[in-house]
Amino acid sequence: MSYRDQIDAIASLKAAMGDGWKAINPESAARMKLQNRFNTGLDIARYTAKIMRQDMADYDADTAAYTQSLGCWHGFIGQQKLISIKKHFGKTDKRYLYLSGWMVAALRSEFGPLPDQSMHEKTAVSGLIAELYTFLKQADAWELNHLYRDLDAAREAGDKAKEDELISKIDNHETHIVPIIADIDAGFGNAEATYLLAKQMIEAGACCIQIENQVSDEKQCGHQDGKVTVPHEDFLAKINAVRYAFLELGVDDGVIVARTDSLGAGLTKQIAVTNEPGDLGDQYNSFLDGDVIESADDIANGDVVIKQNGKLVRPKRLASGLFQFKPGTGEDRVVLDCITSLQNGADLLWIETEKPHVGQIAAMVNRIREVVPNAKLVYNNSPSFNWTLNFRQQVFDAWTEAGKDVSAYDRAALMSVEYDETELAAEADARIRNFQRDASREAGIFHHLITLPTYHTAALSTDNLAKGYFGDEGMLAYAGGVQRREIREGIATVKHQDMAGSNIGDDHKEYFAGEAALKAGGKDNTMNQFG
């Protein structure tokens, strides 16, 4: 419904309600209604699920149409990211938010900073989703409020053309609400626990839930050692639990990302149940490392024995009770995990790798696509990778293979600043710049994300300010390094009162109390110094 139609509809309702509504201004009410497009988290989840499904179809038609996100650990960070995207690119198309379990653990737990091992309160996950969308909705209200104020100014100036232009902008306003890919870790318990938390996450607004195949009570960050996976049937039960949660809440096109940590996981807590050779459990068990049993004398007290490829085998078990996989089987296990997940309800894949290498990712995806042709990935452009060193070494290796002279370079020391201005460094940076385009074209990556970039940017910017402010620069560190840059670069937060909702609140007070409203934005508000 257009701006003018909204006003007319509320005017009709006001007339029908009689004198009791005489203080209600239909245009003011229409403005408030338009600034709050989504009444519930489920409204958001249903809206964004459709966006994500269309984006997946767009990618299938053209791999250049990949999507991107950054992980955000606070609603304000997510809000500023989307405001920046709209400012620089004019629209939010193909840009999402990522909610990282790592950052929830490190920054949002009441226990204090925790490692990424599912020790934080699980409700903190759904709480952050709700917070992110609260701030994105406020960004809508903030942006529209500026249009409303400009509209009032145009009317006061008698500029009908400007008035019509602004009403058109209001009618065509693009919301800051975008899809969130939300990390549920390994489900925080059994399948029922996974279902209950998934419901909370969806009710908070999540249209896409990412779940991994690690043991929930032994879960590790994908870039830590000691990862322990579960048999496929256990993982599929949790995928089903998430799907049931989506269906129960009416988000029928909700998206599930199945993450496999098998490439770096050498352990399993369980031996899979198998009923016949070649079934899913038997395939899982075929990767277990063990010793062939020739006689009963080879079996010690407490040993477990399985039949593997027609032979009796004693799986290798650690003192912890965990079983080991055969060395070098990670990639084969990844491929089986991915095919199995896609054939059993997952929509997208996540393969956690140890380095950002297009060829390595493509090798696995191509094998998966032999069975599921439209398989596609969500990929972690992880801060745990040393991007500079990895790509400089990739260039070094490529040059070596091509017979190019690399005698001027020490492969092990390529991170050194002495190489920053070299031809090798320039080519490595070009590969980093093009990594997302190349990987989406060659390795089936639909969505590129950085899990915890804003963790690092917060630390870096704070370090820069602290170094100057508590040092010789004093107040110039803030005035020159922060505020002046905000002004020059058009960062809206320079007017922090406005960004936090001061002008919105003032206008609402005027709607509610008319000339009696006590407003904060008068001539004595120091925010006026910024024009």
TrEMBL record:
Catalytic site positions: 221 (proton acceptor)
Pfam families, per database record: ICL (PF00463)
Required cofactor(s): Mg(2+)
Keyword Cytoplasm: no
InterPro entries: ICL/PEPM, Isocitrate_lyase, Pyrv/PenolPyrv_kinase-like_dom, Pyrv_kinase-like_dom_sf
MF term (GO), any: metal ion binding
Catalytic activity: D-threo-isocitrate = glyoxylate + succinate
Top-level division of the source organism's lineage: Bacteria
Residues that hold Mg(2+) according to the record: 183
One GO BP: carboxylic acid metabolic process
Gene3D superfamilies: Phosphoenolpyruvate-binding domains
Keyword annotations of the record: Lyase, Magnesium, Metal-binding
Ion transport listed as a keyword: no
Cofactor note: Can also use Mn(2+) ion.
NCBIfam families (UniProt xref): PRK06498.1 (NF005074)
Name this protein carries in UniProt: Isocitrate lyase
Organism whose genome encodes this protein: Marinobacterium nitratireducens
